[in-house]
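quick one before i forget lol
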Amino acid sequence: MATPMNAIATQAGLALRACALVVALATTSVQAAAPPAAAQAAGRWLTEPRDGIIEITVSPEGALEGRIVGGNHPGRLDAKNPDAAARTKELRGQVILKGMAWQGEGRWSGGTIYDPDSGSTYKCNVELRDDGTLKVRGYIGFSLLGKNQVWTRYTGTSLDLPPAH
């Protein structure tokens, strides 16, 4: 015959195990949340003017982040950054695409993209297109007021591109 204290301890133990199971399931579903399109978006991309290489990584939740890893101006500084202290940093290695949340159907939004040519940061949408390219749209305010670039998969081995003519 169980005593009232044993019954309470048993119920508390069951409750703790149930909580642990819920946490384990939630963690598993977060880790599995990255969509298949996110894996396809990961890797190195050549910007549309063909002067930069951006490496895109994907978090377990499917969010995108892009970092400059190469281009046609090795050693170029972030001279137009609005933060004077950042103007002495090299562009290579800088995160320029961040906060891109998975929206479904090969699309991410809600993040920003930094344009080192102007020193401006814009809202951004990214779309993985059927032809394997990325459509990157930077905009101010509304998506209608912006500009598109189409990035192509970079398959080269050198991170230094030839200078533009």
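fyi Helices lie at 4-31, 36-41.
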